[in-house]
Amino acid sequence: MTERPALLVLRALGLGDLLTGVPALRALRRHHPGHELVLAAPARLAPALAATGTADRLLATDAPGREVPHRLPWDGPPPELAVDLHGNGPASRDALARLRPTRLIAYADARAPRWRDDEHERERWCRLLRHHGIGADADDLLIARPAVASPAPGAVVVHPGADAAARQWPPDRFAAVARALRADGRRVVVTAGRGERALAEDVARGAGLRSGDVLGGGADLPFPLLAALVAEARAVVCGDTGIAHLAAALGTPSVTLFGPVSPVLWGPPDVPRHLALWRHEGEATRPGDAHGPRPDPRLLRIRPAEVLAALAELPPPVSRPGRAAPVQPT
Predict the structure, then answer these.
(1) What φ, ψ does residue 296 adopt, rounded to 5°?
(2) Any bridge partners for residue 274, and if so which?
(3) Which of 223, 238, 211, 214 has its CA nearest to residue 152?
């Protein structure tokens, strides 16, 4: 059996980055159906990658923060095509170039289009591919619903955490929203990523919820379970973090709170089921530090009453037929 040529893509970042990269990955898969498509990304994203159906396998690699991995553990023949979806500098380009691919696509290349700071993340990578003759649609972001059942079907999912304090709305405000929803007869669950259990418990206590209404925290929820929870939720309320992109990918109504960075760059699709709140007062698209140590002032301008009003505007979830995603719990 002849070994398929390899197409290696570098995007060694987080869950939200993976999901915003789905349109570009899907375009590469369509354009190169005979290649083995390999994504260089953190090992913890393997179940999420499998759920997207965009790659054949994951090449486990990681680096602190959002840095470029020092080395890609590639042990096969040089890839026929390598694509840098990680950044726009020489570090990520060179990490791929050292593997001697036959062809390399990257923004940090004389043949690439101009990098734009004001461009949405999904469109940015699709534009790079289109420049190289690969048709890509930034709106092609939906993924299949998971095969497992939700632990809380119909609940409003409140996710107070974020990977940086600058994008974390105060827990007492999340609690106020959850408390009002509960008083209105809504079921509410609070989700927590790894190390966020105390934060989620604080929100739950402030809302009058039970400890059993907090899901996750000691470790990340297994991706199939998290995806099922989001897919069958009435709505998701969160900051600009991975679960917001998961709601967009699954078509679940959502309210996302933005602070240091505009939703023009990282927001959900501009459709009624997704509402992005950003109190920027005419400021630039990147007025703050997305990785800063304190809640961004623009995020603090958003009040619980505004979030509740936005939730009331959301249309009901739309039933989406879909195949079961070929993923296994971790």
Answers:
(1) -65, 140
(2) 254
(3) 214
Report the run of H or E that residue 129 belongs to, with start and end: helix 121-131
Q: CA 56 to CA 49: how far, in whole Å?
A: 9
Q: Which among 24, 82, 51, 20 has a CA at the least distance from the CA of 323? A: 51
Is 70 exceeded by the pLDDT of residue 219? yes
The H or E element that residue 9 is part of is strand 6-10
Calpha distance 202→221 (Å, rounded): 18
Spatial neighbors of 206 by CB under 8 A, at least 6 apart, are 171, 172, 174, 175, 176, 178, 179
Contact 61, 72 (CB under 8 A): yes
| CA 223 to each of CA 144, 146, 201, 265: distance values in angstroms, whole numbers, following the listed order | 13, 9, 21, 25
Domains, the chain, with CATH or none: 6-131 (3.40.50.2000), 156-313 (3.40.50.2000)
Radius of gyration of the chain (CA): 20
Per-residue pLDDT of 93-122, as tens digits, reads 999 999 999 999 999 998 999 999 999 999
Amino acid at 310: A
- Which pair of tokens denotes residue 294? 């304190």
Place of tokens 């170039």: 97
pLDDT of residue 9 exceeding 90, the answer is yes
Cβ atoms of 141 and 248 within 8 Å: the answer is yes
**Beta bridge partner(s), residue 256:** 238, 276
Whose tokens are 């593997």? That residue is 99
46, 71 contact by CB (below 8 A): no
